[in-house]
Amino acid sequence: MPVLVMKFGGTSVATLDRIKRAAKRVGVEVAKGYDVIVIVSAMSGETNKLVGFVGETSPLYDAREYDAVVSSGENVTAGLMALTLQEMDVPARSWQGWQVPVKTTSAHSSARIEEIPTDNIMAKFGEGMKVAVVAGFQGVSPEGRITTLGRGGSDTTAVAFAAAFGAERCDIYTDVDGVYTTDPRVTDKARKLDKIAFEEMLELASLGAKVLQTRSVELAMRYKVRLRVLSSFEEQSDEAGTLVCAEEEIMESNVVAGVAFSRDEAKMTLISVADRPGIAAAIFSPLAEAGVNVDMIVQNISEEGRTDMTFSCPVDQVARAEQAMEAAKAAGDINFHDLVADTNVAKVSIVGIGMRSHAGVAAKMFETLRDEGVNIKVITTSEIKVSVLIDRKYMELAVQSLHDAFGLETAA
Amino acid sequence: MPVLVMKFGGTSVATLDRIKRAAKRVGVEVAKGYDVIVIVSAMSGETNKLVGFVGETSPLYDAREYDAVVSSGENVTAGLMALTLQEMDVPARSWQGWQVPVKTTSAHSSARIEEIPTDNIMAKFGEGMKVAVVAGFQGVSPEGRITTLGRGGSDTTAVAFAAAFGAERCDIYTDVDGVYTTDPRVTDKARKLDKIAFEEMLELASLGAKVLQTRSVELAMRYKVRLRVLSSFEEQSDEAGTLVCAEEEIMESNVVAGVAFSRDEAKMTLISVADRPGIAAAIFSPLAEAGVNVDMIVQNISEEGRTDMTFSCPVDQVARAEQAMEAAKAAGDINFHDLVADTNVAKVSIVGIGMRSHAGVAAKMFETLRDEGVNIKVITTSEIKVSVLIDRKYMELAVQSLHDAFGLETAA
């Protein structure tokens, strides 16, 4: 029998009624002849409640105990889902992480899956079981302690199972009906994509389109797991949602797949830095040590041995960045006249694998923004992405005009 | 280091504050030099919530999934208790049933503990850990599925750990401050017992004094585990609560240790049963098959080949008993004129190991009841107990007068 992995997030299993609804979807796939592995999250709110308990008990908690506590919500959903399927006469049973076992590293609260043995579950499929319900987000360390994979980890569990079992597809049921060309709240011209390449999804995921956990997309790309994102709140056909797949599977696509944005950016500029070999390391090492996630970096042309260095980071890390820079200055490691923080910026990006073979995409982006009178503060590019930092007040305008300019309203 | 087992029930860990209070008690014992094993229940209300989820999902549930779901509350408390102890700088970690592992039978929802390996936890004690926090109520079957021990099972977990680790004592922290001569709600003369013998506790437990789960007392008696019942809501000394122990440890005691009672009894009489060899089996086998818990049985003297047979059972099983008797009559297995149910009765019992060496205890009980004008409907006796069935309206009066008659207000 072909294997299908189906993952249901917290809102999709928030109540017993929703679990029933999800179970019906599973029943549909079983009827088609699949052996199904269902990965479940905790009922929404449960994990937050448990995280709150831990935080209140112990501000500097032992991550091993944290994992033991916060993983329990998934166990509840797994058992309830198995019971619901049994009520529908679908042979099912639940597995907790340690029962499979989902073998992970010992990095508690952000463990990585190392191995998922398939013999146990495959044997049950062989005996006529149709659905294995597995508690997502959790695993077991080499020391036999319970681990968790970090927030959104159930997506990663799902993809890892799909890879281990050679599943035909991994369906991620969530509260949105797919991946859009941009956030529909910013423009009503946003269009749901039928397909998107792994690389594009990865850029969109890390750029703030919070549909899928970045790591799950990385994993899917590496193991070529076809990933489908779709809504658990609508009746679904085989064509529903968005398929995240290898670019070979996407026959025809727009040059730009989507416009992503991130509101909570800040731009910081070190004015008149003494320019010398190693200056970048002298600036960015202390920032990294201070836990500042530097994103874009621009260095101006050097004049008379001095230069300006600009970088962006999340707006809530500005204070930390300032502290680190002043400390480095005081220690004599760097020398600058002034540090200017602009906390009213946003990042807008266009993403598309088509850029690789199309020249002039970046130029078209810059022209579009110029025509709208939007000043660009910083630019970075990668093979399939162009990002710009602009004043935050222009963000919606920029997204809308780029969406229009690259014709995203209509499919290729 | 001597080992001490401490068990905290649901009300004792109902909130983070109460967990902290319990952890402080644990800290006191650690300071005395004990290696402590703490057994925790779920935060009160949690298990009921999960049981409700299961019942709503699936009226005829798979007990294996039920166990997987309802055991999760204990895991949360275990982790939180370990974190709380760590915050107090007491080296602690949590264990879930499968991690110890607590090996049980496969009888899901009412599993029995078969073995508790001590090497894992003892090794940690050897490395300087002072407290092992273990999720109560749960274990793992030979098939690797999660099992639970039935309601109140955490008491049994605690006693089993005390037996396995040769603990000096097993302290059961609960919401009452010990075992009383009778229920203080019935007479304010009720007195807390400092010590009570296992056999007496067993009779009291099964008679409705709901302080300890019956099975935990049986286990304690078999393995000679000294069991102390005490309140988690009061400051406690070493002498607090009630010690349940071997009778050799009890130097001096009243002939009668306590007066127990049970309100929810029914008396059923089969009128004019055809008396023949095997008639008792013909009556009580179908009752057992119907799941009726028959308690007291009285057979009248036979006259002209016919007799009356009286038995008692819980009042909510009367309909089931009637059904079983009518079916047996219809099948020709038994023959009786009428079946009379009296659902307004109560059982009152006096319990005491002193009865073994004192004659006239039963007679004194009957005289006391006669003097109060209480009519006795059925009598049964064992070596350390006399029980009577009386009209329910006399129950409080009977308990009070027996408590007075046997001088239970003052210790021996």
UniProtKB/TrEMBL annotation, chains A, B:
Enzyme class: transferase
Catalytically driven reaction(s): L-aspartate + ATP = 4-phospho-L-aspartate + ADP
GO MF annotation terms: aspartate kinase activity; ATP binding
InterPro entries the record matches: AceGlu_kinase-like_sf (IPR036393), ACT-like_dom_sf (IPR045865), ACT_Aspartokinase (IPR054352), ACT_dom (IPR002912), AKii-LysC-BS (IPR041740), Asp/Glu/Uridylate_kinase (IPR001048), Asp_kin_monofn (IPR005260), Asp_kinase (IPR001341)
Organism domain of life: Bacteria
A cellular-component GO term for this protein: cytosol
Annotated residues for binding of ATP: 7-10, 174-175, 180, 185, 210-211
Positions annotated to bind substrate: 47, 74
Record bears the keyword Membrane: no
Keywords: Amino-acid biosynthesis, ATP-binding, Kinase, Lysine biosynthesis, Nucleotide-binding, Transferase
GO biological processes: homoserine biosynthetic process; lysine biosynthetic process via diaminopimelate; threonine biosynthetic process
Enzyme Commission designation: 2.7.2.4
Pathway: Amino-acid biosynthesis; L-threonine biosynthesis; L-threonine from L-aspartate: step 1/5; Amino-acid biosynthesis; L-methionine biosynthesis via de novo pathway; L-homoserine from L-aspartate: step 1/3; Amino-acid biosynthesis; L-lysine biosynthesis via DAP pathway; (S)-tetrahydrodipicolinate from L-aspartate: step 1/4
Family recorded in the similarity comment: Belongs to the aspartokinase family.
Full protein name: Aspartokinase
Organism of derivation: Pseudooctadecabacter jejudonensis
Lineage of producing organism: Bacteria, Pseudomonadati, Pseudomonadota, Alphaproteobacteria, Rhodobacterales
